[in-house]
Write a structure and sequence with these properties.
By secondary structure, the protein is mainly α. It is 82% helix and 0% strand. The protein is elongated and about 40 Å long.
Length: 84
Amino acid sequence: MDIQRLQILTEVIREYKTAIHMDERKDEIGSEVLEIIMNSQDLVLYGHVKRAKEIDRFPEEAVKHLDEATAYLHEKIDEQLPNH
């Protein structure tokens, strides 16, 4: 995946985290985010987001999985930067 796509996925996950924190439309947003992540065809990333969606009634736990997804994406972005 290119850097721009990775950055977009990071933003999408951030939106889902916000929805969980605010407890607003988290089911709808979670489903949309999961579909977007599924289309990325990255099984590691999909696993993190799927686990978050499955437990989003427990916000703190769900956010931990989304934080792991974000850290994973940041690693992928770093790999694509020059001098890495």
